[in-house]
Amino acid sequence: MPFSIKLNNCDITVSSLAAITFNGTASDGDATAFALQGSGAATNVALKITDSSSKNVVPGQPSSTQKLIEGENQLNYNASLISTDDTVKAGSANVTTNFMVTYS
To answer: Which keywords fit this entry according to its UniProt record (predicted)?
Structure first.
């Protein structure tokens, strides 16, 4: 599932690069993916986020820096469910993550 984060009113004389850190609980089965939450959650399933270069976004670690342009910037990502084991049990797939933007 593609999604994006828009950064508005960027002044590249102040900061020309940005990195996004997605905070959340890492999956026990794959530390580079986010754990599903809540009762009735699918088992051995996690949420993987990748950036526009298809690089994994690891929970709690900054993504690759992206060069900004003056004004509005759109940072594109993709979220997908992955299996973390051969045996998967159906259930809900809810994840909460907060993100932090670091400018440099």
So the answer is: Fimbrium, Signal
